[in-house]
Amino acid sequence: MHKVVVLGARFGGSATAYWLHKLFPARELEVTVVDQWTTMTYRPALVTAAAGHPALADQWHIAMKQRCEKAGQHFVRDTIMRIDPHQQQVHLASRAPLSYDTLFIATGTDPGWKTIPGLGAERGGVCEDYLARQSGDRLHRARSIVLAVGPLAQAPDDTPRLAGSLDAPAFEISFLTDAWLRQQNQRQNVKLTIITPASVPGEAFGPKNQALLARFLAQRHIDLITQAQYHHVEHDAIHLVGHLAVQADVMIWIPPYHGSELLRVSQLDDGYGWFPADPFCVHEKWPNIYGVGDISRTALPKLGHIAMMQARTAVHHFYALRHHGTPKPFNPYVLHVVWMGRGQGLLTLSNWLYGKGHEWAHPGVSSALAKSLFDYSYKLFSGWMPIMP
């Protein structure tokens, strides 16, 4: 039986496991999913916890081990140490190496907390549940709140290019926090600031969405500092190149991202920590290894929807090879909804980032309802929804 190993059980890994179960009969593959946690934290919902409601972080844990085993797949809880593509083995922390015939890597990127002097997870964040809880609790005592977007380290010739790691959560937290403070009649006492290395807000979304975001920020009196270059961070201030210091009682960071240490130690990266993939998500050197989600240099702008689309592309390519079909290459586009607070959302559907020039933006209640529906459907079906992108 053909041995398939999936590394990671978040957006990309879960969608990969879904498509393997959907397309292949049980007798054809032996599928093993590896992750260091048996549950997935649904990260898109953590912005609500960070925006003054820390208890909400505990409501977004999804039982991925249970989901995979219900489908007849093996689930191994362990830490992945190294991949040996020559021996076709995955080395784990606490057990014998795991052999594979085909490997899907969906372990995500590593936050580069230490790439900015003085920066660390203790400064505040939103990318993990414990960070979102801490950030949400600190907001209750703050008079100046800064949402800081870290830079994205890419290879020099990578396209598309983004300056920031992911700016959407910063805008969501700022809008939700603004709405929460107004409900408490405290907005006039709190200064909200967003700092980003990008030249515009929503750099991955396109000009229409960027203009809308800029307008909404101005209407809510949320300050925006663009093209920021970070010099160093202190406990109550972010220092930018040019000797500008931004004071902060509370910081919430979307950290810098600089690729994957797993890929580096396994010598599977492009020299900059990213998975070098062809249009079918196949490794440029190893045809039996696929890269899905944030780990891939083609996954920009690091959104869960793109990871799910990559999983579909990768598994359908794998299926086509085994069943003499014709695979379709990855056709990326951005589909995202920014929480605006007050029951509003900003829906973006755009391939502008990828040079296609199509962009659609829709602010309103219906966009927020669509985001709520997706979030709760994802939780209800443990990531394996009836309709998958």
UniProtKB/TrEMBL annotation:
Organism expressing this protein natively: Sulfobacillus thermotolerans
SUPFAM superfamilies tied to this protein: FAD/NAD(P)-binding domain
Domain FAD/NAD(P)-binding: 3-124
Protein name: FAD/NAD(P)-binding domain-containing protein
